[in-house]
Amino acid sequence: MNPLKAKFSRYVALERQDSDLLDGLLRADARLVPPGGDLIREGEPIHFVKVITDGWACRYKLLADGRRQIVAFLLPGDMCNPDALVVDEMDHSIGAITEMYCALIQPDVFDRACLASTRLRQAMAFDACSMLGMQREWTLNVGARPALERIAHMLCELHYRLAAIGLAVDGTFATPLTQIIMAEAAGITSVHVNRVVQDLRARGLLLWHGRSITLPDPDALAQLCGFSPRHLHMPRFALPGTQVGV
Amino acid sequence: MNPLKAKFSRYVALERQDSDLLDGLLRADARLVPPGGDLIREGEPIHFVKVITDGWACRYKLLADGRRQIVAFLLPGDMCNPDALVVDEMDHSIGAITEMYCALIQPDVFDRACLASTRLRQAMAFDACSMLGMQREWTLNVGARPALERIAHMLCELHYRLAAIGLAVDGTFATPLTQIIMAEAAGITSVHVNRVVQDLRARGLLLWHGRSITLPDPDALAQLCGFSPRHLHMPRFALPGTQVGV
DNA sequence: CGAACCCTTGACTTAATTCAACAACCGTGG
DNA sequence: CCACGGTTGTTGAATTAAGTCAAGGGTTCG
Fold first, then answer.
1. For residues B156 and B138, is the Cβ–Cβ distance under 8 A?
2. Comparing A201 with B2, which gets the higher pLDDT?
3. Which of A69, A140, A231 sits opposite B69 (nearest CB)?
4. Is this prediction's pTM over 0.85?
């Protein structure tokens, strides 16, 4: 299923015409990026709205000493540059974690499609709120939570987002994440991520071998780190088996 | 001067009619909030778009143990809920740092004003990018930079934003910040903020007594922490006497 | 002039980093 | 099929940035 439609249907009730519009958008040129490659780099001009149709990517920034901080994960259905019409150049980079497929859409075409439907416009607005909300929550996460809760929170959020687009079932999802990538995202070292992961395993809250992650008790994990899906602004989606916390 | 106009004029070239529209918006109901009070709290429904006309506020979230993390500062000309039309309830709180004045605008009135002018719509889009860019940079800041650079970066950003609306001149600006507030924003303790502030003073990069902050050498401070104004997306504003970094 | 705040300082503790080594895993090519 | 090199995961010991606790000194404001 078209992952953009899957996500948007969590914001608003899509009708036939909206569905057709979204399908039309994703029939645009596609692009393939190898793992580790960049979809776009800081400072570059923006030519397209890119919609991820398959694969995981991340927004990141490089520091003077070469370290990088990942500031967001991009999953299927996420857009790289919904603001392509106004922004001249990227203030951050977007890197492919897996091999990536994305649709390249002309900014003006994208804009016209959004304006053609009230519901699409609304879904776009929801998505913008969702991105902002996530970014604020991420700021809180790295700013205030200790490592254990920080990793737990990232896992809860990924689980929720993946479940919303049908890529997580019964607390299990496929993932290309490594402990190194988690470290860059959480702002701690990979050595420490390793110790935290083992702690979570010992508590029976995490199964993570290779490319598969299972959260045996999502509620308990959410409780541990104070995760609530509120900041994701998906009024039409409640994670099965998970409390929609306070 | 209308601070909303001041900021928007950094994004696009406003024309007479845009100016009139913005003035009209700010003639709406005003509200006064005492220092330490909340403009709105997490979980509450959103009734108005609020534009800050005077005073400083902050977006924050509370943790289970009572600590709070400030995730953004709001200055005159900033909007509390530009997304009032779609979002049902707040995913964070907004607290007044100083005594605050803000204009209360009906969401639909606000929306109509924006749609009435291409340039206003563009300025709103720029502002949204600016907020997102700041939030990403803040995530990077608390996630990856050591305390000294972290505080330095916050000072650089505040200086730039205040200069953009005419509230900072020659590296000096009035501020209601305390070291405690800085600590909540930077995700470190106030004791440590104090040590960092003294370090910056010793390096000749910061004068901060009471309600006034001076950055004697903004370029050097920006260099120290790798600050660049790119993420603020103000194409029509370069800080006088400061390099517009890489 | 007293009472909140806020700033400052020192001694001690702790969470997380660093460094280093090694084990497990992966895809690739011989 | 196995050998290989590179990446990722794991562990331990030493180090460090930042936190905690506690006390005292300044400001500001009613």
1. no
2. A201
3. A140
4. yes
